[in-house]
Amino acid sequence: MWIEQRSIHGKVRYCFIERYKSSLTGRYRRVSVTYGKKTPQVVKTATRELEEKIQKALAEEGRAVRKITMQELETRFLDDYEKQVRYNTYHNGEIFLDEFVEACGPNTRPSAITTVWLNRLSRAVLNCCFMAV
Q: Which of 5, 108, 122, 132 has the least CB density, counted as fewest CB within 10 Å?
């Protein structure tokens, strides 16, 4: 934890900041709380509050990953993806995702998919492509 001194409307405020690593993205995120004093009691309170914020954020991330199925993930992704790219790009992505979800099963949880399984799937797809030629 570190403390930054800030001046807001002529008053000195202390911003207590802590970083944590996101379980979803693997990147570091920041949480902060601001108080008007920098006494040992306030530092202790800020530390507790920051820890609670971090635990809450990590719990929400974990819940989002575990409770979703591949079918739900596909529909959520495609809803956002459609707004970002042209129709042909979207349509190609939709076809690929439909095949991928069908291969792994629509009720499969994303956390259950491993790199070993993905490697086996890619080998099977490549073999099918070469057999067709």
A: 132
SS (H, E, C) 62-130: HHHHHCCCHHHHHHHHHHHHHHHCCHHHHHHHHHHHHHHHHHHCCCCCHHHCCHHHHHHHHHHHHHHHH
Main-chain phi, psi angles of 38, to 5 degrees: -130, 60
Residue-wise pLDDT for 87-101, tens only, equals 999 999 899 888 888
Q: Tell me how far apart the alpha carbons of residues 75 and 33 are, in angstroms, rounded to a whole number.
A: 36
What amino acid occupies position 31?
Answer: V
Phi and psi at residue 32, to the nearest 5°: -150, 155
Average pLDDT for the chain:
86
* 85 half-sphere exposure, CB direction, 13 A CA radius: 14
> How far, CA to CA in Å, does 62 sit from each of 7, 52, 70, 119?
36, 15, 16, 25
Which pTM does this prediction carry? 0.51
